[in-house]
Design goal:
The structure holds three protein chains of three kinds. In chain A, 53% of the residues lie in helices and 12% in strands. By secondary structure, chain A is α/β, with parallel strands linked by helices. Chain A has two domains: 23-138 and 298-344, Periplasmic binding protein-like II (D-Maltodextrin-Binding Protein, domain 2); 143-295 and 367-412, Periplasmic binding protein-like II (D-Maltodextrin-Binding Protein, domain 2), CATH 3.40.190.10. In chain A, the strands form four sheets. A five-stranded mixed beta sheet of chain A has the order 2-1-3-12-6, sandwiched between helices. In chain A, strands 8-9-7-10 form a four-stranded mixed beta sheet, sandwiched between helices. In chain A, β4 and β5 (130-131) form a beta hairpin. In chain A, α2 packs across α14 (267-273), α2 packs antiparallel against α16 (327-337) and α8 packs across α9. Chain A starts with a helix and ends with a helix. Among the domains of chain B are: 59-94, no CATH class; 112-318, MetI-like (MetI-like fold, Orthogonal Bundle). Helix content of chain B is 67%, strand content 2%. Chain B has 17 helices and two strands. Chain B has helices at 3-12, 18-23, 25-45, 84-92, 104-110, 116-147, 154-162, 169-180, 182-196, 199-202, 215-240, 244-252, 257-268, 270-285, 289-294, 306-316, 320-351, and strands spanning 71-73, 79-81. Chain B has a two-stranded antiparallel ribbon. In chain B, a hairpin with a 5-residue loop joins β1 (71-73) and β2 (79-81). Chain C is 72% helix and 0% strand. Chain C has helices at 18-46, 49-54, 67-75, 86-116, 122-132, 137-151, 157-182, 185-193, 198-209, 211-227, 230-235, 243-252, 260-291. Chain C is globular. The two termini of chain C are 15 Å apart. The chains are: A alpha/beta, B mainly alpha, C mainly alpha. At the B-C interface, α2, α3, α6, α7 and α8 of B face α1, α4, α5, α6 and α7 of C.
């Protein structure tokens, strides 16, 4: 009995030490399954494989499907090697429960704080002074994507701002083209509404509500204008949007079935996969052409603490984390995805016209939105989302009622 | 069973019928640990402010190790009695009351003005449930009665009505989503109208999923397509179980066939109806997959259902407390409906 | 359970008269409604993308081909992997076969014990079991994650088999209990007199007599487990996902244009196993239902 036990321990130790130097299978869960996204995640996979590890792909279609799987796996004691996850208060719970690998030492050794910009990207990965995730890109929802051909077909100029877009909508309708492509998922609707808020209401309004939580601002005439724009957008969509995923809506713009889509810059990856060029086949309007600003949300990767083969696995995780922020990977990844790199010190000569627009906006810190994730709890944001979604989908809800509810949520936010 | 036998049985105690008890261990585990245990867990944590992970409601203090700490192990390995008093102190520290929020989650859930989403999902499931039960019972019964008329190709008809039941909700959802999209049935009708020069067909809208008022019918169309066949087969089986003499007697008395069905057959099929109701209703309460695949709860929350509310708050919204409060409400509803029925069905039989 | 039960008991058919014509027309119209989606699935899956775009959904393909089927089975992509549904098919087999065997084994013994070997509390357990079948899965989802984690089987094949066995138990137990209760009790009494015990009677008398209900149980479980999405996605682990999860992945990970033909081919492929079982065993199914569920 005694001998067997010690032999087993010795064997286990041997196996463990042998693995430290060796290759690890890193299972990575993410919800990047559209064409552009898959191409982008392929960059990561290649980098990890080239470093001698094995990337085991755990793609899960749809963030709504993916999050339950990812969270239940971490909570269920079956952690993956690495996972995409939204930063913010969700991840905080997991960090607090001690379920995430601490990346602070690596980050300090490589000087992440020096080259990651804007600095709030790293802040959202930081919990009580320690770093637990790797930001991999900067995403902004504040874009409108237009098909130039669709407007040519309808015989009108390509709009350069929201008002022109509204004015051109009837002409598109007459030509049998849906003016605005939308999808049915709630995040798409609420994201679009958020874009309206910034682009039409302006940065001051955004700040007053999302940072200062001012009920007065929520009740202001500017905000009424935002609700009116959403009400107008109701009439510009097609009947088939219920249950549609975002990239199907993007495909409508690509194929000329729709004039435009209000969607984050990840949509650009789809245009790229379809072989279209910014400025030729499609156009982009940051901030709907009114207030060109960027919100700097983004994707981040977390590394759940391994529960077996701990040492070797943690080493592999750190190696992967370092790869994700490295220069070449950042360039290749973001070119494929259509997002902006997290490093200010790399050359993006290959970036297309729209990405250049984004980089130019990003150069002025004034143009960067504070994230509302830090101001409002996930729960309050959920209430906003519910309101946007109800309002957009139900024409019987008046602008006044919706705004009254909005003011109430802002006033009660904790 | 007489009283004396019962007493004798009781006296034999735990070891009587031992193999049956051992064989029933999986069932006992399932009922006690899974069904009862998980329900208790869910109800308990619905009173907490759990977010993404359940709060640590029960954290044993370091010195408290239940139940070993009744004794202390000394260095030499001897056990010393520690006593109950110590135990009790430890026990009172066991619950972290700071995480408890009372009925706050329920207040929020049931506040229809601030949380229209839950109210809407309850409304939806009620509408769906009543409509789908009525429809599948009526149509199922009529189809069964028709097939029961010694039709030719009975097997073929029955197989056709039943096959959707063999499909996954994911499959059903994907197919119907496409058929109900504007490029589906509507497009086909319009094309046909254009081809046949029938004006009103050319522009006939058939877009159940585009409006919050009609989307529930899209769900019903797909759900009933999948489920009615099963109801029919159960009803048919029930009809076949009825004694042939009854039909003969009815015919001799000159009672029309439809009257026989309504006044004789239906009352005799009580058991079948109940079984069917149980199976159908339990399916309705947990309606989830179909909604997610077909409409994702939209437009707005017009096709939202309670199960989806729970799932969303559990994971996407990271508000476990709220999710568990919602599922406790579902549980409560189920129990309120079931207890009287269980009493009638199974309590009554024992007395027989 | 004699054959007589499955023969029609309705009134003798009249000669072909108006009522028969109405009867058959209703049956045929209903059949068309039920067949329409299947027709759409098959027709669409045989088209290429151009035909899907041009024609309406009810048009029969002008040039039929199995390209979409091959793509759905072999090369459709989710994320980085382009291996189609075939991986999920084998995983579904690996999940379904043991789950069906385990759940039926447990439930048949339960039903048998509840019919002939009642012990104190057995009816209470049964009642809870039936109520349990109504409890929405979401109520038990999170605690079950914790339970399987503690058992060390979360995210594994045994984990998902465990879950399926639990959730198959109520309806199967009900089925077997009703079936065994309807058997003549004399059989059991005679065997007792001969000195047979719990297991002896079960294996030598009850099991051989329960072929019809076993068939029903197998059909119910194979289709139920094959079609499951929720438990597969949560408990099986990312590398063991069943076919339904992969179907959902493929349908939702549009890369460029939405390929309805591939999606429809994928749905047919996913539905093929349960469909085949149904069409082969239709008669047994009805007979088994008559014998089991309905007597409740």
């Amino acid at each position: 009995m005694f001998n067997m036990k010690s032999a087993a321990v010795a064997a286990a130790a041997l196996v463990a030490s042998a693995c430290v130097a060796g290759a690890e299978k890193i299972e990575v869960t993410h919800w990047w399954t559209s064409g552009g996204e898959a191409a982008a995640v392929g960059v990561f996979a290649d980098a990890v494989n080239a470093a001698g590890h094995e990337w085991v792909d755990g793609a899960i279609a749809g963030g709504g499907n993916a999050r339950p799987v990812i969270l239940s796996r971490i909570a269920g004691g079956d952690p993956m090697g690495a996972t995409q996850l939204n930063t913010g208060r969700d991840a905080e719970d997991l960090v607090q429960a001690g379920l995430m690998t601490d990346l602070t030492d690596l980050a300090e050794a490589e000087g992440w704080a020096d080259f990651i910009r804007p600095s709030k990207l790293l802040d959202s990965c930081t919990y009580e002074g320690r770093i637990y995730c790797v930001p991999v890109n900067i995403h902004s929802f504040q874009w409108m994507w237009l098909n130039r051909g669709a407007y040519a077909t309808a015989g009108v100029d390509v709009p350069s701002n929201w008002d022109e877009f509204v004015a051109a909508a009837p002409a598109l309708r007459d030509a049998g083209i849906t003016p605005l492509a939308v999808g049915g998922e709630s995040w798409q609707i609420s994201g679009m509404s958020g874009v309206f808020q910034v682009a039409l209401g302006g940065l001051d309004l955004y700040r007053a509500i999302n940072v200062d939580k001012s009920p007065e601002a929520a009740a202001s005439a500017e905000m009424t204008q935002v609700f009116e724009a959403i009400a107008a957008a109701r009439g510009m969509v097609d009947d088939g949007y219920v249950g549609r995923v975002w990239n199907d809506a993007t495909a409508m713009v690509i194929n000329g079935k729709a004039g435009a889509q209000i969607m984050g810059d990840w949509a650009q990856g789809e245009f790229g996969v379809a072989g279209q060029t910014a400025g030729d086949e499609y156009d982009c309007l940051p901030g709907l052409g009114v207030y060109p600003v960027l919100d700097t949300g983004g994707d981040a990767f977390y590394f759940p603490k391994p529960n077996k083969n701990v040492e070797a696995m943690t080493a592999a995780q750190l190696e992967m984390a370092s790869l994700l922020v490295s220069k070449q990977v950042q360039v290749d990844f973001n070119l494929a995805k259509g997002s902006l790199p997290i490093r200010g010190d790399i050359d993006l000569a290959a970036a297309n016209a729209c990405m250049q627009k984004g980089l130019a906006i990003l150069a002025n810190p004034e143009n960067v939105l504070p994230s509302s994730e830090q101001a409002f709890t996930g729960d309050t944001q959920g209430q906003f989302e519910d309101l946007w979604v109800s309002f957009f989908n139900d024409p019987s809800i008046s602008v006044e009622d919706a705004q009254a509810r909005y003011v109430e949520i802002v006033a009660n936010a904790d | 069973m007489t009283a004396t036998v019962k007493q004798k049985r009781r006296r034999l105690g735990l070891f009587r019928n031992l193999s049956a008890k051992i064989a029933a261990i999986p069932m006992i585990f399932t009922t006690l640990v899974v069904f009862v245990g998980c329900s208790i867990w869910t109800i308990t944590y619905s009173f907490t402010k759990s977010k993404l992970l359940p709060v640590k409601l029960f954290t044993p203090p370091v010195e408290f190790q239940f139940p070993i700490s009744l004794f202390n192990r000394s260095e030499e390995g001897f056990l010393t009695w520690v006593g109950f008093d110590y135990q009790w102190n430890g026990f009172s520290k066991l619950i972290n009351t700071k995480f408890l929020v009372g009925f706050a989650q329920y207040d929020r859930l049931l506040d229809a003005t601030r949380n229209a989403r839950w109210a809407e999902s309850v409304e939806n499931i009620l509408f769906y449930g009543v409509f789908s039960l009525t429809f599948s019972f009526t149509v199922g019964f009529i189809l069964a009665a028709l097939i029961d008329q010694k039709v030719r190709f009975e097997n073929a008809f029955r197989s056709i009505y039943l096959y959707p039941f063999a499909l996954s909700f994911v499959v059903t959802g994907v197919v119907w989503q496409w058929m109900l999209s504007p490029a589906g049935i509507q497009d086909a009708i319009n094309q046909f109208g254009a081809w046949a020069h029938i004006g009103f067909l050319e522009n006939l809208p058939f877009k159940l999923m585009a409006s919050g008022d009609t989307v529930i019918f899209a769900l019903l169309l797909a759900g009933l397509w999948q489920g009615t066949g099963f109801t029919m087969v159960l009803m048919l089986a029930g009809m076949r179980g009825i004694d042939g003499e009854i039909w003969k007697a009815a015919r001799v008395d000159g009672i029309p066939k439809w009257k026989t069905y309504i006044f004789v057959v239906i009352p005799m099929m009580r058991g079948v109806f109940i079984t069917t109701l149980v199976i159908a209703a339990s399916g309705i309460v947990r309606l989830y997959d179909l909604v997610v695949v077909l409409t994702a709860g939209g437009p707005g929350f017009a096709s939202e259902v309670p199960a989806k509310y729970v799932y969303d708050f559990m994971f996407a919204r990271s508000n476990l407390g709220q999710a568990l409060a919602a599922s406790s409400m579902m549980l409560l509803t189920v129990v309120i409906i079931l207890i009287p029925w269980m009493y009638l069905e199974y309590g009554r039989k024992k007395e027989r | 359970m004699t054959k007589a039960i499955v023969t029609p008991r309705g009134a003798k058919p009249n000669r072909i008269g108006p009522s028969r014509i109405i009867l058959y027309s209703i049956l045929v119209v209903a059949a068309v409604y039920y067949l329409l989606p299947l027709y759409v699935m098959v027709a669409t899956s045989l088209k290429d993308l151009d035909q899907v775009r041009e024609g309406n959904i009810f048009a029969w393909p002008l040039r039929a081909g199995f390209d979409a089927w091959i793509k759905a089975w072999d090369t459709a992509c989710t994320g980085l992997y382009c291996e189609g549904l075939k991986v999920g098919f084998w995983k579904s087999v690996q999940i379904t076969v043991p789950s069906v065997l385990v759940s039926i084994a447990i439930a048949s013994i339960n039903g048998y014990a509840l019919s002939y070997w009642r012990f104190r509390g057995s009816e209470v357990f049964f009642t809870i079991l039936i109520i349990g079948s109504f409890i929405p899965y979401q109520v038990m989802l999170y605690p079950l994650v914790i339970i399987t984690r503690e058992l060390g089987i979360f995210g594994t094949l045994p984990g998902v088999i465990f879950i399926h066995s639990i959730f198959g138990m109520p309806i199967l137990t009900l089925l077997f209990r009703n079936y065994f209760a309807a058997l003549p009790v004399e059989l059991f009494k005679a065997a007792r007199v001969d000195g047979a015990g719990f297991w002896g009677i079960f294996f030598q008398i009850m099991l051989p007599m329960s072929i019809p209900i076993l068939v029903v149980a197998i059909i119910l479980q194979v289709t139920g487990i094959w079609n499951d999405f929720l438990f597969g996605v949560i408990f099986a682990g990312t590398q063991n996902w069943p076919m339904t999860v992969q179907l959902n992945n493929i349908v939702n990970s549009t890369q460029g244009v939405k390929e309805h033909n591939v999606n429809m081919a994928a749905t047919i492929l996913t539905g093929l196993v349960p469909l085949t079982i149904y069409f082969i065993s239709g008669r047994y199914f009805v007979r088994g239902i008559a014998a089991g569920a309905v007597k409740g």
